[in-house]
């Protein structure tokens, strides 16, 4: 898809490359010249993405999750917006490729003008399953890209994005937001954006580049430059991970997708592709799929029983009901919930108004009845007028 989009402006370049017998390229490297353009291959074992992100047993294929992380069908909530939460998700296996690119889509949302603590994307020699650095382990060997919401050092430069490398010995300088250790950084507000924030991190020929789509547009390719680190040496094999933490203040940290691509220098042979999906996994997926299919059939039958009138073209109807396009996205759902909430409030106000009207009406009736009564009694026995009138004298 991305290469198709790039095709227009890059047509001559692509044609030239095709003439040289190289595949089309994409992303940031394209602009740096044909010589540096890598082969790019999607690595499903180091990736996750909705709408069927989680398996029936609550696990994410090829990933482990820890702490407060909650995977669901279309995202992984690394932390909920409660105090002192920590969570992380890590690839089960070490990558075996030297150069890579990851595209991560996430949302950081909270009610406060200020949130905490932030989210981190990792490539490290070991899984940092638990710890004090945005929910992951300190003294990592590799790199962390931190989306730091909270301004610990009070320099008014958060939310910000910083890149911190570590050789396994350094303790993260949390009090200074890592500023004493940052290899590169950029100031970006990634919280509470209308669209998910997208980040593209490329490690190629010892250069690490961070590009960001700040969530103001739905255009997936609308990246802006954030940071670059040259001559960066990372472990040749490592785990990809993403973690988050909250403090006294708290945001929801939701990751919608984590896509990993292997990059290979042109001319160098790409490593032999991984063998097909292992037989065991295949069977498991097949089972999942069949289970899903059965559930679907059951639902269809139920629906037909309850709605015999639409029996005419059930196929069409179910296509509509059960295709991915019709499932609402997280933001759609939030919008719908807001609308429903407003509707409810509106109805309740209406109801209250009606009740108020009724009470006022009752009161009017009561007052006139009393007045009438007083007038009557006054007429019948003038001697008692003073007594009867007394309690109602002021009304
Ligand atoms: Ca901070
Ligand atoms: Ca700061």
TrEMBL record:
Entry's localization field: Endoplasmic reticulum-Golgi intermediate compartment membrane
Single GO cellular component term: COPII-coated ER to Golgi transport vesicle
Gene3D superfamilies hit by this protein: 2.60.120.200
Source organism superkingdom: Eukaryota
Principal location: endoplasmic reticulum
Domain L-type lectin-like: 40-263
GO molecular function, one term: D-mannose binding
Membrane topology: Single-pass type I membrane protein
Protein name, entry field: LMAN1 protein
GO terms (BP aspect): endoplasmic reticulum to Golgi vesicle-mediated transport
SUPFAM superfamilies registered for this protein in UniProt: Concanavalin A-like lectins/glucanases (SSF49899)
């Amino acid at each position: 898809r991305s290469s198709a989009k790039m095709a227009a402006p890059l047509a001559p370049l692509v044609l030239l490359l095709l003439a040289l017998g190289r595949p089309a390229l994409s992303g940031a490297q394209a602009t740096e010249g044909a010589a540096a353009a890598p082969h790019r291959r999607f690595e499903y074992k180091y990736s996750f993405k909705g709408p069927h992100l989680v398996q029936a047993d609550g696990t994410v294929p090829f990933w482990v999750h820890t702490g407060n992380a909650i995977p669901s069908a279309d995202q992984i909530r690394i932390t909920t917006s409660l105090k002192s939460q920590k969570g992380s998700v890590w690839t089960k296996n070490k990558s075996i490729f030297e150069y890579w690119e990851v595209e991560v889509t996430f949302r950081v949302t909270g009610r406060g003008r200020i949130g905490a603590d932030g989210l981190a994307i990792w490539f490290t020699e070991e899984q940092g399953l638990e710890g004090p650095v945005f929910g992951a382990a300190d003294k990592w060997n590799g790199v962390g890209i931190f989306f730091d919401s909270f301004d610990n050092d009070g320099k008014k430069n958060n939310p910000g994005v910083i890149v911190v490398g570590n050789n396994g010995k350094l303790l993260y300088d949390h009090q200074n937001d890592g500023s004493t250790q940052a290899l590169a950084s950029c100031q970006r507000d990634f919280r509470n954006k209308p669209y998910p924030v997208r980040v593209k991190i490329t490690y190629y020929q010892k250069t690490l580049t961070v590009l960001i789509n700040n969530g103001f547009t739905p255009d997936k390719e609308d990246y802006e430059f954030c940071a670059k680190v040259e001559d960066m040496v990372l472990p040749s094999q490592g785990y990809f991970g993403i973690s988050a933490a909250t403090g006294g203040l708290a945001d929801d940290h939701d990751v919608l997708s984590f896509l990993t691509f292997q990059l290979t220098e042109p001319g160098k042979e790409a490593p032999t592709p991984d063998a097909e999906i292992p037989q065991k996994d295949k069977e498991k997926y097949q089972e999942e799929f069949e289970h899903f299919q059965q559930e679907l059939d059951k639902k269809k039958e139920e629906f037909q029983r309850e709605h015999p009138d639409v029996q005419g073209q059930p196929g069409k109807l179910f296509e509509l009901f059960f295709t991915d396009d019709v499932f609402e996205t997280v933001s759609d759902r939030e919008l719908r919930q807001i609308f429903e909430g407003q509707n409810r409030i509106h109805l309740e106000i209406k109801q209250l108004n009606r009740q108020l009207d009724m009470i006022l009406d009752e009161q009017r009736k009561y007052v006139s009845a009393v007045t009438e009564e007083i007038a009557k009694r006054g007429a019948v026995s003038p001697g008692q007028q003073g007594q009867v009138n007394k309690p109602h004298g002021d009304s």
